[in-house]
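can u do me a favor
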């Protein structure tokens, strides 16, 4: 399934992944409804990404802060191994972990990755960071399973028991994460094509640009003002490519 994003700077053709059917089907549904037509790329950060899909951006006056609009639902995360933030990746925006620990996606807002090309030293650091994030996620999952036990120890002020349980769960989390951060494929892509490796495992990637990457480059180079909104509005229309 492919969609075409039409802008005044040119067209972007995106292929949606079958591996993320919830996001694919929702995006196609909104496209067919005309949901995105007249919306803006409302948040643009050079060497990072371009973001759109906020319905409140339709006809928004200059200077209006955007980025919180969307339908009255969110989507279950579909964060999959092998789908990562290479240049041209299409991913779903979302609220932060502090209010959204399940990493559910916005019902409509999306971003297209631009990013940077990284050297080996930078990739080693990102690989280490990614593994730490994976271990933390595994630890949080285990802690949730022991919630009642943890709460009882806290009520009893059993610090020794809490520390022993924490050490046990950390060891179990470390054992659960066998991967060494970035894969060889990711290292190759991020050192040649580029992208944003620090977002891997954090957001759902559900497609990639097949044509029009030069248009993405032009948009990410746009002059921006308050809230990273382009000074000159970049409006879009999206259609399904038959």
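np, heres the sequence
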């Amino acid at each position: 399934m492919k969609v075409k994003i039409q802008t005044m700077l040119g067209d972007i053709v995106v292929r949606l992944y079958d591996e993320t059917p919830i996001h694919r089907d929702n995006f196609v549904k909104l496209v067919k409804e005309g949901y995105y037509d007249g919306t803006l790329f409302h948040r643009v950060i050079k060497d990072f990404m371009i973001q759109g899909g906020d319905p409140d951006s339709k006809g928004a006056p200059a200077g209006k802060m955007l980025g919180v609009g969307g339908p009255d639902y969110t989507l279950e995360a579909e964060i999959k191994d092998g789908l990562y933030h290479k240049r041209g990746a299409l991913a779903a925006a979302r609220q932060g972990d502090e209010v959204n620990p399940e990493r559910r996606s916005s019902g409509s807002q999306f971003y297209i990755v631009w990013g940077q090309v990284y050297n080996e030293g930078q990739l080693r650091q990102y690989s280490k960071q990614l593994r730490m994030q994976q271990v933390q996620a595994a630890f949080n999952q285990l802690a949730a399973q022991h919630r009642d036990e943890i709460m009882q120890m806290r009520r009893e002020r059993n610090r020794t028991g809490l520390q022993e349980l924490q050490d046990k769960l950390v060891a179990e989390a470390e054992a659960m994460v066998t991967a060494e951060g970035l894969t060889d494929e990711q290292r190759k892509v991020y050192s040649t094509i580029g992208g944003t490796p620090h977002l891997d495992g954090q957001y759902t990637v559900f497609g990639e640009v097949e044509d029009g990457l030069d248009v993405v480059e032009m948009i990410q180079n746009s002059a921006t003002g308050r809230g990273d909104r382009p000074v000159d509005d970049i409006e879009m229309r999206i259609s399904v490519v038959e």
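The longest strand covers residues 10-16. hope that helps!!
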